[in-house]
């Protein structure tokens, strides 16, 4: 047994997970439903983290003795300052009291390496380095190469909004429950394409979604089209943009393996379409069937990976929240 406790409070979920190596022992996620605000309220969320974090820590210990935990793994960024603080305080406290080492974890790095958690995906083949990753979440949109567990290179990023933000803004305009991404995907199933839209020209492997948003905002406000038709038309153009960049990234780097991660990668239409194109181009396409949205399993998993790689533990007194932490090419 080697038990790693992962703690994640970077945004609007309070999450604690226990892993034995890369096998999940417990996974608790509490999400706050901000229906009334149609969005996230940073100055309120941290109060929920305070309210629930100790409760869920106790629940995750139902079948496990606290003294059997070997390692703590904590998200230190990117995210909301106050929210990150709550998780970090619990992590430091546990590390001190239990006299066990601690690793700080980049939330985005954790999303990417979720593929290495046992049972996280249903693809038979193993994901082999190097591979291209498309990270599409509420906070980020990135295209990158993973050379190894701890080595990567950013190829492209969004120049304006993240893809999740755009989905949620469209969702709000359609009066969908927040966050609207899931419902746009669901409604699109029975929709018919309204029109073919040209994909915007964006330099290199970067993305830009603001122009598309304005176009669809007008469609919705016009009230001329059915919601389901708007949804599929939107999904189609977004997919075209993603496919175009992924295609280039794989071709330029002569790589066949590629995966999608982040909340938006839950999108059934994207998965179905990427599967089709993977057959055509002979790509090995990977997507997650579990631990897609924010969770602490992915955080504990990075702790275990760093431990296996013999990385120096982080000094408890030095760890602090880094809200703007971005994956750069050197330090994770
Ligand atoms: O990764 P995530 O859980 O949280 C962040 O770290 O940002 O991503 C949340 C985002 C939201 O914008 C939500 O609308 C979107 O993921 N999302 C989807 C789908 N399911 C969740 N977007 C499109 N299609 C979906 N099926
Ligand atoms: Zn996330």
Based on the coordinates given, report the CATH architecture of the largest domain. Answer: 2-Layer Sandwich
**Overall geometric form:** globular
Give the C-alpha Rg: 20 Å
Quick one: how many beta strands?
Answer: 10
Total individual domains: 2
Please give the order of strands in the largest beta sheet.
3-2-1-4-5
Helix content: 25-40%
> How many distinct helices?
9
Order of helices and strands: EEEHEHEHEEEHHHHEHEH
The proportion of strand residues reads 15-25%
Q: Class by helix and strand content?
A: alpha/beta
Tell me, what is the CATH class of the largest domain?
A: Alpha Beta
State the CATH superfamily name of the largest domain. Answer: ATPase, nucleotide binding domain
Task: Give a written overview of the molecule.
The protein contains nine helices and ten strands. It is of the alpha/beta class and 332 residues long. The protein has two domains: 3-112 and 292-318, 2-Layer Sandwich (Nucleotidyltransferase, domain 5), CATH 3.30.420.40; 122-287, 2-Layer Sandwich (Nucleotidyltransferase, domain 5), CATH 3.30.420. Strands 3-2-1-4-5 form a five-stranded mixed β-sheet, sandwiched between helices. A five-stranded mixed β-sheet has the order 8-7-6-9-10. Helix 4 (163-173) packs parallel to helix 6, helix 5 packs across helix 7 (227-252) and helix 6 runs antiparallel to helix 7 (227-252). The longest helix is centred in the last third of the chain and has 26 residues, at 227-252. It binds 5'-O-[(R)-(carboxyoxy)(hydroxy)phosphoryl]adenosine (KG4) and zinc ion (ZN). Zinc ion binds at residues 107, 111, 137, 294. The site of 5'-O-[(R)-(carboxyoxy)(hydroxy)phosphoryl]adenosine (KG4) has 19 residues, from helix 4 and helix 5.
